Amino acid sequence: MSIPAGIPNCPRGLEYLTTIDQLLVKQKVELLEAFTGFETNNKFSIKNALGQKVYYAVEDNDCCTRNCCGPSRPFEMKVFDNYRQEVIHMHRPLACSACCFPCCLQSIEVSAPPGNVIGTIEQEWSICSPSFRILNHIGDTVLRIEGPLCTYSLCGDVEFNVVSLTGEKIGKISKQWSGLAREIFTDADFFGISFPLDLDVRMKAVLLGATFLIDAMFFEKSGNRETDGPGML
To answer: Which UniProt keywords apply (predicted)?
Structure first.
C-alpha cells in the first residue's frame, strides 16, 4: 500500500490509516513454538481489506521473560512500515488481569512516532465480561471496548465491541476462527479491526495496540496449552 501524501496534523507513518476503516492482523506461525511449546517473539502482518500490506509488527523481549512469564509477560511491540521504518511503538508493562488484583490491571501504551505517546489502553476491573478504556494523549477517556463473557474460540469468531462514551457501537476487534488444526496446535491468531473512516488516526493506531493486548491476554497460550476461562477469574 502506497503512502497517502499531504495529510495535515498526522504523525509520521500513520498516513496509511487515514484512508481505511479496517485492518487485518495475521500472526505468523512459529514452527519451533508449535512443535516444542518454546515461546518465541511474536510477529504479525498487518493488511488492509484488499490484502495489501500496511505494516508488520515484531515483539521485542528476552527469552527468559517469554518463557517464565508466558502470556502475562511484559513486551515492547515495534510496528514497521513497508520501508522498514519503525512508525509505532507499544509498551506493555508486567501486570495482572484477574479480578482479584484490581490495583494492578493490564495496559499498553502506544507511541507514534516512537517517543511521542498518542494513547493508552487500560483494563477496567470486572468480574464477568472484560472491558477496557481507551485514553488519548492527555489521559482523557475517548472510547471503550466491551468483550464477551466467554472468550473461547469454539469454531467461531470472538468479538470485542468498540463503543463511544454514550454506548454506541462504532467498531469491533474480532478474533477470527482460523481452523481446527491452527487453533489447537498453535497460538497464531487472525484478527479483524473495524472503525469509522473518519476516526482520529491516532485512535486507529491505539486500537491496533488494543488488539495486541487482547491477543496476549486471552488468546496467547502457554506452551500451546489453553489457559483461558470464563469471565475474568
So the answer is: Calcium, Lipoprotein, Palmitate
Q: Name beta bridge partners: 143.
A: 134
**Residue 203 pLDDT:** 97
* Angle, vertex CA 124, rays to CA 160 and CA 45, nearest 5: 40
The pLDDT of residue 180 is above 50:
no
Per-residue three-class SS string for 107-164: EEEEECCCCCEEEEEEECCCCCCCEEEEEECCCCEEEEEECCCCCCCCCCCEEEEEEC
- Average pLDDT along the chain: 84
Q: Do 193 and 213 touch, CB atoms closer than 8 A? A: no
Give ∠ CA 77-189-27 in degrees, rounded to 5: 45
Name the more confident of 82 and 152.
Answer: 82
Contact (Cβ atoms closer than 8 angstroms) between residue 217 and residue 105: no
Q: What's the CATH number of domain 15-219, 2.10.260.10, 3.30.750.24, 1.10.10.10, 2.40.160.200?
A: 2.40.160.200
Q: Does 31 score more than 60 pLDDT?
A: no
